[in-house]
Design goal:
Blueprint: H1 19-23, E1 57-58, E2 65-67, E3 73-75, E4 79-80, H2 90-101, E5 105-107, H3 115-128, E6 138-143, H4 150-164, E7 171-174, H5 200-204, H6 207-219, E8 225-228, H7 232-241, E9 248-252, H8 260-268, E10 272-276, H9 296-305, H10 309-320, E11 323-324, H11 331-336, H12 345-355, H13 366-369
Parallel strand pairs: 4-5, 5-6, 6-7, 7-8, 8-9, 9-10, 10-11
Antiparallel strand pairs: 1-2, 2-3
Helix pairs in contact: 2-3, 3-4, 4-6, 9-10, 9-12
The structure holds NADP nicotinamide-adenine-dinucleotide phosphate.
Length: 379
């Protein structure tokens, strides 16, 4: 088993050494490879030693936790609760199963419109399991685009908390770096074209939104605050005025979108990346029809490792040093996704080789928002 401790740190000196030398671990036990991954290209990069400024990681596999830049601990494997086409009750069942299996990190959002089911599941689980306390469960939620005005940010968190049946959340994120207009009933305002009406002022200058986030952190309603879908440029702007630095940037990451530059930027600035769609979201590359789950090399790595592909993808994310947020409504998958193995160097490097140079984004709501966050990216 790999007994290494993986960490991320802030080091200007080694910033130019590249992503892998910084997040790949020092390994405390000899590596034993079961058999060579014939026909799989991989790089013989040795895990370099790295400088640890302070210990930020404990445990391995699904028991791994990281310490955020404000000292709050976050479980490395979180449970995604976005059930796009889910039937009523599906989220309740899935979250209940996840808590029974041992997940202690739930990724929620105002936008998912199912926080009431998450809240009921948490409430009922805690009722049946008095040994588990509210503070043992890390709950993240997010403010949607049309609620970026400072008072609305606060309204959003209060609204989420009451549905989640909690007094505070562990992490509160700005879901997208795009502000939109709302109606009086707190629904999204859409224009004649059916797209969101973008609030240009708050989109160009998110300082008022962030100040409201900081106030929520000060008040203890959110133990940590952060962002989601932020780009490097957006983070640079935010960091210029932030009194409280974002603790997390939740972004799409899987082998078809390794997002290496952004992940590295986050590490360099002590912002923990959290990988959404870590299993490739089951989507396909529009131009070629490729899917992460069908990739022959990734499937070969899974076969070689003796684990299923989802477990390999999650293990790859943990070894790169960030949070992973798999979603499933299938009880057996909820269970197996929480059994994250350690990859050998060879297996890890084989996944890295698949990911290198790829940039296929599956989650892009530009047609809904009427705003393209990533202009120039082909889809
Ligand atoms: P994902 O976790 O990569 O993939 C989910 C899909 O994979 C579902 O169709 C699920 O099917 C399937 N699946 C799960 N486990 C599997 C396994 N072991 N084997 C085969 N298939 C498996 O993608 P995601 O749902 O897009 O993202 C996960 C979470 O990230 C979301 O729930 C949400 O919390 C978060 N997210 C955030 C944002 C954002 O903008 N911040 C955007 C997207 C997602 P079944 O459910 O049928 O098992």
């Amino acid at each position: 088993m790999l007994g290494g401790i993986y960490s991320w740190y802030h080091s200007r000196k080694s910033a130019s050494r590249g992503f892998h030398t910084k997040i790949v671990a020092a390994v405390s036990e000899p590596l034993i490879s079961k058999r060579p991954l014939n026909c799989i290209p991989f790089f013989h990069a040795r895990p370099d030693k790295f400088v640890r400024r302070y210990k930020m990681t404990t445990g391995t596999g699904s028991s791994k936790t990281y310490t955020l830049n404000n000292g709050v601990r976050i479980p490395a494997v979180g449970f995604g609760t976005f059930a796009n086409e889910g039937e009523k009750g599906e989220t309740y069942k899935a979250v209940t199963k996840a808590l029974e299996v041992g997940y202690r990190h739930l990724d929620c959002a105002w936008f998912y419109q199912n926080e009431d089911e998450v809240g009921d599941a948490v409430h009922d689980f805690l009722g049946k399991n008095p040994n588990v306390k509210r503070e043992d469960i890390f709950i993240c939620t997010k403010v949607w685009n049309h609620l970026h005005a400072p008072e609305d940010v606060k309204w959003s968190l209060q609204n989420s908390c009451s549905k989640l049946r909690v007094d505070y959340v562990d992490l509160f994120l700005v879901h997208w770096p795009i502000a939109a207009e709302r109606n009086d009933d707190y629904s999204v305002r859409t224009g004649p074209h059916g797209k969101y009406v973008v609030n240009r002022e708050l989109t160009d200058n998110p300082e008022p939104t962030w100040r409201a986030m900081e106030e929520l952190a000060d008040s203890g309603k959110a133990r940590a605050i952060g962002v989601s879908n932020w780009t490097i440029e957006g983070l640079q702007k935010l960091l210029r005025f932030a009194r409280i630095k974002p603790a997390v940037n939740q972004i799409e990451i899987h082998p078809f979108l390794p997002n290496t530059e952004l992940v590295q930027f986050c590490f360099d600035n002590q912002i923990m990346p959290a990988a959404y769609s870590p299993l490739g979201s089951q989507n396909q590359v529009p131009s070629t029809g490729e899917r992460v789950r069908d990739d022959p090399t990734l499937n070969e790595v899974a076969k070689h490792s003796g684990h299923n592909l989802a477990q390999v993808l999650l293990a790859w994310g943990l070894r790169r040093g960030y949070v992973v947020l798999p979603k499933s409504s299938t009880p057996s998958r909820i269970e197996s996704n929480f059994q994250v193995p350690d990859l050998t160097d060879e297996e890890f490097n084989a996944v890295e080789a698949v990911a290198r140079g790829k940039h296929f984004r599956f989650v892009n709501m530009k047609d809904t928002f009427g705003y393209d966050l990533w202009p120039g990216e082909s889809r």
